[in-house]
Structures are given as C-alpha cells and as structure tokens.
UniProtKB/TrEMBL annotation, chains A, B:
Taxonomic superkingdom: Bacteria
InterPro entries found in the cross-reference section: ArsR-like_HTH (IPR011991), HTH_ArsR_DNA-bd_dom (IPR001845), HTH_Metal-responsive_Reg (IPR052543), WH-like_DNA-bd_sf (IPR036388), WH_DNA-bd_sf (IPR036390)
Stretches assigned to the HTH arsR-type domain: 1-94
Identification of the protein by name: ArsR family transcriptional regulator
GO MF entries: cadmium ion sensor activity; DNA binding; DNA-binding transcription factor activity; lead ion binding
A single BP term in Gene Ontology: response to cadmium ion
Pfam families named among the record's database cross-references: HTH_20 (PF12840)
Length: 251, 251
DNA sequence: CAAACACTTCGGCGAAGATCGTAGTGTTTC
DNA sequence: GAAACACTACGATCTTCGCCGAAGTGTTTG
C-alpha cells in the first residue's frame, strides 16, 4: 500500500505546532488573514507566510486575495473532518480509551461555531426556516422575510442586539453535516435565545452543546425538528446525555 | 484554543513515513508483530521499535505481549477514523476538490477487511444473521448454530475451505460503523461467495467493494438488508455506482 | 545450557526543516 | 509621490529527529 507516504505528507504538515494552530483557528469556518493567523499561531509573519504557502499548495487551505491582504479558510469540509479526527484522538490520549467517541458524536450533534449553533440540530433548524419561507438562503447570503421577522418576534427572539455593522444573516457551511446552518446576527440570536431559555448549555472545556430535556421539547415544538433531536428510541450517548441535566461527560 | 499543540503532537507522530506505513498496515484491523511492521515500513527493527514505543505511548496503538513477541493493533476505531480522514484529504491533494468524499463514502459502504467484508453492508449482514439466530456473537467469539449451518448449506456457501487452524467465526469491530461484522472462516466464506456470484467486485487499487445490480437484488433476497443497500431512492455516488457495472470511480 | 530469536537501549551521524533578520514586491492611504 | 501596510523571498542559524551499528534483556527451542 503506497497510501502510507501520502498520509505522512499531510500529517507532517499538520504536525507543526504553528500550522496546527492556524488550522485550529480556521476550524469553525472563519476566514482569516495571514497576519491574524501569524499572531494566533505565535510566529513571525515571515514564518507564517511560509507555512500558509505550504498548506495552500497541499490543498488544505483555500486562499482569496482581496486588496493587499490574503484571506485563508479551510479548503473543504473534508479538511475539517480530518482535523476533528485528530482532535478526538489527541484529546483522549493514552488514558481512558473506551467509549470516548462520545465527544465526537456530541460535537456532531450540537456545538457552537463562533457565536452561533452548528451541528445536526443547527442544520435542521436552518432547513426548517427555509422550508417555511421564514428565511431565504443562497450561496453566500441570506435574508429574513416579513413572515420570518414575525415568527422570531412571536418567539421572543431579540434580533436587534446585534451591532449595525455585522452581517445580518448568512449561511455557514457545517463541516460535519456538509450543509449550511445559520450564521450572522440571526444565528447568534438563536443561540443566545436557546442558552437563555435553557434549551442548550455549554459543556465545559468544549464547543459541544448539551441539549436539555426542555430543549428537546421546545426545539421540537418551535422548529419541528424531531428527527434531529435525541429521543428515547435513539440509543447511545446523546440520548442518555439529554435525559438528565447532570450527566455532563467531559469531552 | 490550546487544541492546536495537541493535534500537532498526534499529527507529527503520523507525519513520519515509517510510522505512517505502520499505521496504514494496521488500518484493516489486523494485529501484527514488531518485526512484521518493521519490514512493512521499510526500516530496521531498532528504528521500528522506537516508533512503536512512541505510537503506543501516545495511545494510538494497543500492544499485547505473547511469548517473545509483541502484537500491535490500532488502539481504537477512533484512530482508524482519524487515519481515514487523513487518507481522504491526502488522496485528493490540490486538484479536483469537489465531491471527492465519494471515496470515503464508498469505503464506508462496503469494503474488504483482510479476507472478509466490512462496512455498512457487512454490519447489516451480521445483524441479520444474529437476529435470525443463525449465529451467536459475544464480545470476542462467535458460533454457528445448526440452523445457521443449514442456512449456509442451502445457500451454497462452502464453509469447509478454511484451514482447520483458523478461527471459525468471530466478530470484528467495524471502524466506520462502530459495530461488529463477521470475521473468521465464516466471514471469509461469505466474501468469497459474494465475489464468485458477482454480488460484489473489487474496485481497482482500493479496499472498496462495488455492489453490482445482481448483488443488490441477491443480498436483499438472501439477508433482507434492503436498508443498508443502495436503492434508486438513495441519491449519491453509491446509488449511481451500483446502477451500472461500468461506473467505477477511482478511489 | 547453548543457540536462535524478538525486541530494546544507547550513541553518534546526518539531513530536514523551523525560525527570524534583512530586503524585496505589490497595494492602499494621505 | 511618499509613507504605511500586507505579504513574500532569501539566507544563516540552530534544533529536532530519523536512522542504524553495537550491545543488552528476556523468551523459546533443541
């Protein structure tokens, strides 16, 4: 099998702390400039430039020139998927090996992406809002309809907290589902609302979100996304997690 | 986020060609000795010893001493999952980025694992055989019932080809499905039978298996596993693959 | 008990590559 | 047009780490 050398090449790229930091920073789908990435990874701009060139050449990053700066993002959800694989293995380490894929599964189910929700649930919510014509989405933009505004008003979601300057509503490609969820002010408002009403809560030291029993009921009632929610019929950690509030598994 | 350094540590381990070769060789769930791994990765035994120690310390490999030799295998399905992530990214490289997860998807659907079948289909077959009490499975062993023997006789599967010394029937954890499929002589006989009757065929340069139209029909009729098989309703590469024999996508 | 075997430890060699200072190109701002 | 800015290219230094020869420990075989 000659697959060994190939994966070594990619792994070696990720194997440098500086480059790994850059990739981690881009995990949530953001696009960042070379300078920002240099700062985040803790190396000089010259060094970062070299690293970014290598990552782009290898097809791990996609670049876009705008003006005098270059914006980098992960080249595809595949790359994010690979990084998540590494994260899961890395976080467990030598200790307690058994059943630790729970972390990964929980992440895929519901997590934060910057300031909004991602994962199966977030994609289902976006689907539902589009299906009901509350939101219009295309490749790189989104728009709230009048019906959508009424819907959120009735729900008590405050869409005005966002600063004037930020994008109001946009799609954000979900790397575990390979389909878009909602970002922008609307996405942030939904997450804020869900946290305030105890539909979900943060899991310590993780981007994963725990869906509470209240959340299961309310998300189903509000968005009609039973399919994406844990149920009694759904065996496995997600279901057992959501049955009791206290059962927080370190991820 | 301090996840950067952690994933770098793991990635750096995989980033060496020698170690990557070792891990690749173990991808299908086999257990190999240190000497075998040294030969397969093309380094001297001393070097291999060091590499294996590092991989074990990091929790990527599990070791078992038996007599004067040490048997290594991947520590968990998580590791295999991570390696697959790297493989998928590595095989695509800079070129044609779009829709290349087909390879991974095909692998998850049906592939060989040593000399038997793995993937969704294999897990479904194992489920069905257990459900019908043709086979009894527990953690680390399996047993063919009398009813099971009759079933395979009627089907024309020859279970006697296996050498006397090999394990007759045992479960083998499927890393893409996280549930067991059948290994041992019975597992091998099923794959042999499927290949001889053109239910599946090897895809060139890959461990992936292509389920032929005949296979779709016969596997459904024989094992009642329609759910795991590609159908017309199932969009995506697997369905398009199975519709015509000629449509072999390089993986 | 000796010999063969499987594996590990030690030590020195050598190549790969990460780092940053200096200097350069292209872009924006004033 | 000059200055500030974002990024890139080159080169010297230095650390890291893979590599294998030699020697050592534990196990099996005859």
């Amino acid at each position: 099998m000659d697959t060994g050398p190939k994966i070594a090449q990619v792994a070696a790229l990720v194997g440098d702390p500086g480059r790994a930091n850059m990739l981690s920073a881009l995990m949530d789908g953001r696009t960042l400039t070379a300078t920002e990435l240099a700062y985040l990874s803790g190396v000089a701009p010259q060094t970062a430039s070299g690293h970014l060139a290598k990552l782009s050449d290898a097809g791990l990053l996609a670049v876009e020139r705008r003006g005098r700066r270059r914006y980098f993002r992960l080249a595809s959800p595949l790359v994010a998927r690979m990084l998540e694989g590494l994260m899961v293995v890395a976080q467990e380490g030598p200790a307690r090996q058994r059943n630790l894929w729970r972390g990964g599964e929980t992440l895929r189910h519901a997590r934060t992406c910057y300031d909004h929700m991602a994962g199966r649930i977030a994609v289902a919510i976006a689907d539902r809002l589009v299906q009901q014509s509350f939101i219009l989405l295309d490749e790189d933009g989104g728009q709230l309809t009048d019906a959508g505004r009424s819907f959120f008003d009735a729900l008590g979601v405050d869409l005005c907290l966002a600063s004037k300057r930020r994008v109001f509503c946009r799609p954000c490609l979900d790397w575990s589902e390979r389909r878009p969820h909602l970002a922008g002010a609307v996405g942030a408002a939904i997450l804020r609302h869900a946290l305030e009403h105890d539909w979900v809560e943060h899991i310590r030291d993780s981007r994963a979100l725990l869906v509470t029993p209240v959340g299961v009921r309310e998300l189903a009632a509000t968005f009609g996304i039973e399919g994406a929610l844990p149920t009694d019929a759904c065996k496995g950690p997600v279901a057992s997690l959501s049955r009791g509030r206290a059962a927080v598994i370190p991820v």
